[in-house]
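Journal club prep — side note

Before the paper discussion, L.F. wants everyone to see what a predicted structure for a comparable chain looks like in token form. Sequence:
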Amino acid sequence: MTNAVGNSSSSSRGALSWLRARLPYLIVLILAIAGVGYTSMSGRPLNGYWEFLGLAIGLACIAIGWRKTSDKAERRRILVTQSLHWLAFLIAMGILLLPSVNTFLNGPATGLALMLLLALGTFVAGVHVSSEIATLGIVLALTVPAMAWLKQSALLLVLIVLVVGAFAVALRPQRNEA
């Protein structure tokens, strides 16, 4: 019995350790989804928010690459390439947010386009720095069509939940209280 408790405790510590290691990636994912949600609901983009996310991911990429090597020349290369990489994506995001460009897109389209740019930048940076960053980029990219589908299907999903709930209430067993 002690062994089972010990295994349960060590597996929960392992799960917490796994979650702690991936917490920064989950936070970025949640922030990106929240940014798209806000942009979609408000109808206007969050100037500065997307740049902040891009800058934060860029700094994370530099830090991860820095930790993986102790060679000075390699560290300099990581610093320069990641800085130029993220500068290019931040400029692209800035161009998308320019009033003269943004008039062609509505709020939800702007949010999804910015998320897609962030996903692409994250994936490409991850190819050079870390498979976990690349995976984050893939997950961010997959949330773009998922959020578009969810927005289009929200009414249908609510109706399905209501119908299933109505059936559950109608078909539940009745208790005989005498």
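L.F.'s comment for the group: The longest helix spans residues 2-42. Keep this in mind when we get to the figures.
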